[in-house]
Amino acid sequence: MSPDPSDVLTVEVAGGTALVTVNRPEVRNAINATVLQALTRTLEELAADEDVQVLIFTGAGDKAFVAGADINELAVRTPRDGLKATMQGVYEQVEQFPKPTIAAVNGYAFGGGHELALACDIRVASTNAQFALPETGLGIMPAAGGTQRLAKLVGLGRATEIILTGRRVKADDALAMGLVTDVVEPGELLDTARETANAIMSKGPLAIQLAKTVVRHGFDVDHQTGILLERLAQSVLYSSAEKTEGTNAFLEKRSPDFRGAAQKDVNK
């Protein structure tokens, strides 16, 4: 009997944040078909949940975030599986998720685990985190977005070296090269991720969604197209109740009620 997807992925929603935990600590949270199925379903549900404003991804236990793909499944994959690219598709879903995503990386983030973190908007790491793309040592290559996203984050030369050698990158080095934005003690990791989520949720939700969209899509186009995306998104925000609430709150020296303003925009 196949494992229940709810057993390999847990979701806790509180205060506008959904904590999504890969729950296979006995195999260092390795990604298999069941985890991917659960991720797809969970992302669809959380995208539709108006109470969820930010997602945090992490791994169960203190050994690994996600230590890569399940090698037992990998060993029997065929060229057809490569073309189907299931993991790549799920991580595209993560990257295109309409709400901000944060990877809280504890321990090993190897292979598919590293690529999951790369698909998130923001990455924070514990001091014991290690990142690697070791696929070439198995006679394959990173193919869930790793070859593309890593180069955009750390530069072409450094990404090429990391991918070709498969070397492990420790947390401090990951911070220095811009792979993560913060490194904290393991016991502070989730608190730090939640603090980041709270900082995001204090801002205008429509502004956050459009800013994420423009940054993501503007990165892959020429400068003039990116500037045009920026201009169009700003024009939408200028017409929003959210902008009115934000500017009025600033002038009146009070905290803005962006949730109430967002509802006004919905009811227009």
Automatic annotation (TrEMBL):
Transmembrane segments: none annotated. It catalyses: a (3S)-3-hydroxyacyl-CoA = a (2E)-enoyl-CoA + H2O; a 4-saturated-(3S)-3-hydroxyacyl-CoA = a (3E)-enoyl-CoA + H2O. Keywords: Lyase. InterPro entries: ClpP/crotonase-like_dom_sf (IPR029045), Enoyl-CoA_hyd/isom_CS (IPR018376), Enoyl-CoA_hydra/iso (IPR001753), Enoyl-CoA_hydra_C (IPR014748). Gene3D superfamilies: 2-enoyl-CoA Hydratase, Chain A, domain 1, Lyase 2-enoyl-coa Hydratase, Chain A, domain 2. CDD domains: crotonase-like (cd06558). Pfam families: ECH_1. Belongs to the enoyl-CoA hydratase/isomerase family. This is Enoyl-CoA hydratase-related protein. It comes from Kocuria salsicia.
